[in-house]
């Protein structure tokens, strides 16, 4: 592979959209709340499709969202963890959903998105994406940082973090913050903090 082709391949991106939350605080499924005239999950998938070659939506309840996925987006069924009998909760939080979808990713970088980001801006994601080939090799992710915490559900991860992520999950870990603390992460600039607003109540 010549250098030029290699560069183009590296810039290719897959997106994973998390849509397996229970919306407990909101009290109604956030993925279905209309934003700019369409259900929020569709709004997020459309933006994801504009910056990634493949978009995966990971959820345990595909039937609920079947009608609203745009053409380039496809479902990944979230499944119980190994050893579960079926009496446990159907989901284990965003970190496990992410790990189950990451198995299908073939590009070096993946864009991870929550489905409840009503102010998400395509232009900002695109500006971030073009800088990915400058991220130091040792960084496993490129994320926004706020108050000493990472914003894990709107940013980029290297596919190669999967084995380490699975080990962390096998040990019972479920926290993005705790998991990320062990690795170098590149800081992304956020021009407008409102972009990462995710809403959990109408107040
Ligand atoms: N696939 C998957 N996505 C999840 C899971 N838990 C949360 N998410 C998603 O992660 C994002 C952020 O989740 P939260 O803001 O906690 O939303 P939520 O879990 O639906 O709401 P609460 O029940 O109030 O915590 C949303 O896009 C959720 O759909 C999960 O277990 N599996
Ligand atoms: Mg939650």
UniProtKB/TrEMBL annotation:
Species of the source: Chlorogloeopsis fritschii PCC 6912
Chain's role: Transfers a GMP moiety from GTP to Mo-molybdopterin (Mo-MPT) cofactor (Moco or molybdenum cofactor) to form Mo-molybdopterin guanine dinucleotide (Mo-MGD) cofactor.
Reaction equations catalysed: Mo-molybdopterin + GTP + H(+) = Mo-molybdopterin guanine dinucleotide + diphosphate
MF terms in GO: GTP binding; metal ion binding; molybdenum cofactor guanylyltransferase activity
Name of the protein in its database record: Probable molybdenum cofactor guanylyltransferase
GO biological process: Mo-molybdopterin cofactor biosynthetic process
One Pfam family hit: NTP_transf_3
Family per record: Belongs to the MobA family.
Alphabetized Gene3D superfamilies for the sequence: Spore Coat Polysaccharide Biosynthesis Protein SpsA, Chain A (3.90.550.10)
Residues reported in the UniProt entry to bind Mg(2+): 116
Coiled coil region boundaries: none
Aminoacyl-tRNA synthetase among keywords: no
Higher taxonomy: Bacteria, Bacillati, Cyanobacteriota, Cyanophyceae, Nostocales
Keywords: Cytoplasm, GTP-binding, Magnesium, Metal-binding, Molybdenum cofactor biosynthesis, Nucleotide-binding, Nucleotidyltransferase, Transferase
Binding site for GTP: 18-20, 30, 116
Gene Ontology cellular-component terms listed: cytoplasm
Keyword Transferase included in the entry's annotation: yes
UniProt-listed Enzyme Commission number(s): 2.7.7.77
